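In line with agreed milestones, the collection of sequences with tokenised folds has grown. A representative record is reproduced below.
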Amino acid sequence: MYIIGIAGGTGSGKTTVVKRIVETLPQGKVAVIPQDSYYNDTSHLTMEQRRRINFDHPDAFDWPLLTRHIQMLRRGESIEQPTYSFLISNRLEETIHVEPCEVLIIEGIMALWKEELRDLMDLKIFLDTDADERLIRIIERDTLERGRTAQMVIDRYRNVLKPMHEEFIEPTKRYADLIIPQSIDNLCAIETIQTYIHKNTGL
């Protein structure tokens, strides 16, 4: 199994880049594990308490479960990946069955933050996208998909996203094997990644 970690700030284009990589691989040969699925279970909290959670802090993630699931897939065992809803700030009852395959992509803002998880990766990528562009994408996404107003998103960016990015996400760039500027617009870099994966997996 060839394991790839793709990190970058919120709105950096991770999902789009992953989609373009997956499109070049044979169906059934690649699985994507979104780090967003591994936020902590908050069933014991009220909705008001959930809304106060800092989802851009490392403590918001269930690192033991994520790491254990990657280890299981690497050993050839299937997993039941949790699903998470940002509308209720908690996991859903439904899980996603994931079978081990030739290529595994771990995608998330802090995919490169935990050393134990990094050590499982064969290729580590960081998407280095301009902060203004990331903010525009965040506003578009959160107003359309997460029920937030533009002002709510801007306030959250100033108070949470920006300081957390500078403290926890940006520093993980040092662990990356490849740093991609302009993310989804950098077609040359994406094609290089695609070629590199094909070369190292034989797919």
In short: The longest strand covers residues 90-98. The radius of gyration is 17 Å. The mean pLDDT is 90.
